[in-house]
Amino acid sequence: MKDLVSIITPCYNSAEFIEETIQSVLNQTYDNWEWLITDDLSKDNTVEIIRKYDDPRIKLQVLEKNSGAGNARNNSLERATGRYIAFLDSDDFWYPEYLETMTDYMQENNVELVYCNYSRCNEQLQPVLKDFMADKVVTFSNLLKTCRLAPVSTMYDTKRVGKFLFPIKSKREDHVMWLNLLKVIPEGMPINKTLAKYRMRENSVSRKKKNIIKDQYLVYKDFMGFSTVKSFYYTANWAINGFLKYSKIFN
Predict the structure, then answer these.
(1) What would the pLDDT profile of 33-79 be if each residue is shown by its tens digit?
(2) What is the pTM for the complete model shown?
(3) Domain boundaries, the chain
(4) pLDDT exceeds cutoff 80 at 209
(5) What percent of the chain has pLDDT over 70?
(6) Residue 85: exposed, middle, or buried by beta-carbon count in 10 A (0-12, 13-18, 19+)?
(7) Please, are residues 242 and 236 in contact by the beta-carbon 8 Å criterion?
(8) Planar angle of CA 240, 245, 250, nearest 5 degrees
(9) Which of 29, 59, 138, 251 is buried most deeply by CB count within 10 Å?
């Protein structure tokens, strides 16, 4: 019997894109999944759209207070009962074979974490940069310098490592969570195949690099407990690698 996959999704004002995201999950060739969607008190009709889908695997909870994506993800994680944890933001997209390919690889190779290539797209899901390539084994050490793991393209095994929650007080909560996970496992393995699409929205916080350098510095200083000098060193590495990651010239 296939192991259950718990899909973790925070959403907020996602009405414009959520139906494409939902359809990408319903089209999965791997059907033993539960989808824990936590709505962060959307002001549009996101909730109404989700409730149109009569599928018992889709488990929606609406928060009483807007409290950010990290808290919404944690709400979903706390409700999750599956062996495997997968992340899908409410504006992103999986190819039909995503869950099957990821779980098969983890089982066949006995690994705790895997990640794959993903397309970097505009709001119409048309590629705007070359695909981000999963071409390196990820470790705690190299993840300090650049975050190669994206929620849309990463899965881990709770049977092997347990659950990892997101820090509420960090605006770089995904990077902190991945670092905490890589502290307890030796490595995450790459699948060099494009299985997902990531929407690079114009108002996305993750694209405003200059505005989050301080937040990235705090990843190292406050959450990893590094010295000031060491924190500046890794922040500089992250900034340089971030430029290379999103530059059309270098990609």
Answers:
(1) 999 999 999 999 999 999 999 999 999 999 999 999 999 999 999 99
(2) 0.93
(3) 5-202, 209-250
(4) no
(5) 94
(6) buried
(7) no
(8) 90
(9) 138
81 CB neighbour count, 10 Å cutoff: 10
Examine the pLDDT at 181 and tell me if it is beyond 60. yes
| Secondary structure, 3-state, 82-97 | CCEEEECCCCCEECCC
Q: Do residues 185 and 114 make contact, with C-beta atoms less than 8 angstroms apart?
A: no
Long-range CB contacts (within 8 A, 24+) of 138-144: 138/113, 138/182, 138/187, 138/188, 138/189, 138/190, 139/182, 139/186, 139/187, 139/188, 140/179, 140/182, 140/183, 143/175, 143/178, 143/179, 143/182, 144/179, 144/220, 144/224, 144/234, 144/237
End-to-end, the C-alpha distance of the chain in Å comes to 41
Angle at 179 between CA 66 and CA 2, to 5 degrees: 80
Best CA proximity match to 240, nearest among 123, 160, 146: 146
The type of residue at 192 is N
Structure tokens at 191: 């699948």
CATH of 5-202, one of 3.50.50.60, 3.30.450.180, 1.10.10.10, 3.90.550.10: 3.90.550.10
Q: List phi, psi (to 5°) of 155.
A: -140, 145
**Sequence-ordered list of residues with C-beta below 8 angstroms from that of 124, at least 6 positions apart, any chain:** none
Per-residue pLDDT for 169 more than 80? yes
